[in-house]
Design brief:
The structure holds 2 protein chains of 2 kinds. Chain A is mostly beta strands. Chain A has no helices and 11 strands. In chain A, strands 2, 4, 5, 6, 9, 10 and 11 form a 7-stranded mixed sheet that branches. In chain A, strands 1-3-8-7 form a 4-stranded antiparallel sheet, with no helix packed on it. By secondary structure, chain B is an all-beta fold. In chain B, strands 2, 5, 6, 10, 11 and 12 form a 6-stranded mixed sheet that branches. Classes of the chains: A mainly beta, B mainly beta. At the A-B interface, strand 5, strand 9 and strand 10 of A face strand 5, strand 6, strand 10 and strand 11 of B.
C-alpha cells in the first residue's frame, strides 16, 4: 500500500457511457498525475496537476476530462470512449511538481466495449 | 524530448543468482533523476531505487544496486540473490524539468523479469 488509492479497480463501459475514475492520496502531496498504460507501450503521461492547477495536458483527446477539486483527490471523467482507450489507468502523486519520487495507485483496468 | 530505452523485453534469472537489467536514456538536461520501478502482477508501481544525476556514487538499496554511467547515459539495475518475489515488470524512468515548471516522469517500455526456482 503506497497511500494512493484508485477506484474502481476494474471498469467495463460501452462507448456511449459516461463514467469517472477516482484517485485519492493520503500522503500530503501537492502534485497528482494520470498515466495510461497500454500493452507493449511505455507509460504515457496524460495530465499533471500541481497545487490543484493543471500544468500539463499531453495532447489527450477531450473525451478524457480531468478534475482536481483539491490536492488529495483527482478524477478522470470518461465519455464516448473508443475501444483503443482500453488500458490500465494509473494515478500517481508526488510532493510537488518536482518528481523526486512518485507514488502510484494500483490502477483501474478499463475495458471499452 | 527525453527518451528512455530498455532493450531487453524479457529476462530470466535463477533464484539466488544475479541479474542486470539495462536502461539507456537521452537528454540534454544536466539536472535530472533516474528511477527503477517494479510492477508486480498486482499492478502497483513500486519504487525500487532512485539516483540523482549530480551524485557520482551509485545508489544501493539492499539487494538492488545501479550502475550509473552519466557520460554514456546508462542506468542499469543489478538484482543480487534473486528471489521469487522479484518476478515483475521493471521500468526505468527519468525525471527532469519539462520546461513548464514541473518535472515529468518518462518511462521505458519495461523488462519482464522471471525468476526460476
Amino acid at each position: 500500500e503506497t497511500g494512493v488509492t484508485q477506484t474502481p479497480r476494474h471498469l467495463v463501459m460501452g462507448m456511449t457511457n459516461k463514467k469517472s475514475l477516482k484517485c485519492e492520496q493520503h500522503l500530503g502531496h501537492n502534485a497528482m498525475y494520470w498515466y495510461k498504460q497500454s500493452a507493449k507501450k511505455p507509460l504515457e503521461l496524460m495530465f499533471v496537476y500541481n497545487f490543484k492547477e493543471q500544468t500539463e495536458n499531453n495532447s489527450v483527446p477531450s473525451r478524457f476530462s480531468p478534475e482536481c477539486p483539491n490536492s488529495s483527490h483527482l478524477f478522470l471523467h470518461l465519455h464516448t470512449l473508443q475501444p483503443e482507450d482500453s488500458a490500465l489507468y494509473l494515478c500517481a502523486s508526488s510532493r510537488e511538481g518536482r518528481v523526486t519520487e512518485a507514488f502510484f495507485g494500483q490502477g483501474t483496468r478499463l475495458t471499452v466495449v | 524530448a527525453q527518451t528512455v530505452t530498455q532493450s531487453q523485453p524479457e529476462m530470466s534469472v535463477q533464484e539466488a543468482e544475479t541479474v542486470t537489467l539495462s536502461c539507456t536514456y537521452d537528454t540534454s538536461e544536466s539536472d535530472y533523476y533516474l528511477f527503477w520501478y517494479k510492477q508486480p502482477p498486482s499492478r502497483q508501481m513500486i519504487l525500487v531505487i532512485r539516483q540523482e544525476a549530480y551524485k557520482q556514487q551509485n545508489a544501493t538499496e539492499n539487494r538492488f544496486s545501479v550502475n550509473f554511467q552519466k557520460a554514456a547515459k546508462s542506468f542499469s539495475l543489478k538484482i543480487s540473490d534473486s528471489q521469487l518475489g522479484d518476478a515483475a515488470m521493471y521500468f526505468c524512468a527519468f525525471s527532469s524539468n519539462s520546461g513548464a515548471g514541473s518535472y515529468q516522469l518518462t518511462f521505458g517500455k519495461g523488462t519482464k523479469l522471471s525468476v526460476i526456482p
